């Protein structure tokens, strides 16, 4: 028989007592906690959390503090909760374009130029045409995605469409990475082989940041992602003296859910699967936060993405229901629906298929990589008077409904986080 030294025995007992003390304290998602986070994120002090503004940094700091309180770990390779990156914002600084010996005015060209400097002469660059009989928009879309530098001569028969689109397409181009990007310029001029293009650009690179934290699971490389975007649309034209688009529903409600879910899962024993909590930046201006995030890890390791978008108002089908975009694209929705047989809460398919909501949030970026990535929402978007308005205020939010929705998501996620269920992958080839 093994003899245990009394000192060793004492150590074993101390270890047992210690382990008991470390037992996680369950976190309760309450109307008070939900209300407090939502109120702060949608306060006038945040000035509408617009990406590219200084204001959004206050929101990022606040979310970081909440992640600290939730005792999340940083993402691998990061030394804070901020996952920072640069967005290139490139505009044409100077253009000297000569065709058939005449200088082309700046209202006669638009396109996407990424290079610092370009010198194009016949033979040095490919050319294409949009003829008088071509469908301008279709041909423009096709040629815009050219893999190599391209000048597109647009027949002057399209002059009115060209002029209508000019303002939009002569905005600066934005891209996280400009490596290997082709320069494509559309010029309103009949085809010519007598030209010279001298173009220089300037790059006003902007720093952006997602806010992200993690709870590592026993199966470290199987990741369940909870996300929402923390940016909104900032300052708008004043309505009755109010010019701050607070974005309480869109999407402070989703970020509040992510924070509450982080605290909820931290209050439970170590999960089977790794859980990531991410507040994305720049969703409203092009989805750059999720684009960057999706390239920092292997998307094949993401088992499911719960993207939470506007859960502050009850759905048309009533309180205690939430809908899921792209329901049929994976078994994610089915798993959630089946998770609540005894509960009063019900998950169902997005009731607004014609609104293309599957494509209108950050989930689509991950779905394009095959991830079962869906948005969960409750907003009555067809009748909502506050969507993208200065009236999207804390006071319009139904806190009991929102609290119930967060709790339902927490419960529904249990089987996926616990490794019992795994949604089927989205067929990336079917995602536009
Ligand atoms: Zn949104």
CATH superfamily of the largest domain: Zn peptidases
- Oligomerization state: single chain
Strand tally = 18
Low-confidence stretches: none
CATH topology of the largest domain: Aminopeptidase
Named at the architecture level, the CATH assignment of the largest domain is 3-Layer(aba) Sandwich
- What is the ordering of alpha helices and beta strands? HHHEEEEEHEHEEEEEEEHEHEEHEHEH
**Rg, nearest Å:** 26 Å
Roughly how much helix do the residues carry, as a percent range?
A: 25-40%
| Envelope shape | elongated
The biggest beta sheet is recorded as: 12 strands, mixed
What does this structure look like?
The chain has 432 residues and is an alpha/beta fold. It has helices at 6-21, 31-41, 55-69, 136-144, 159-169, 248-266, 288-294, 332-338, 363-367, 399-417; strands at residues 82-99, 102-103, 109-112, 117-120, 126-130, 150-154, 173-175, 184-188, 195-203, 206-215, 219-229, 235-239, 242-244, 273-280, 302-308, 321-324, 346-349, 373-377. The longest helix has 19 residues, at 248-266. The N and C termini lie far apart (69 Å). The mean pLDDT is 93. It binds zinc ion. Zinc ion is lined by residues 229, 250-251, 309, 361.
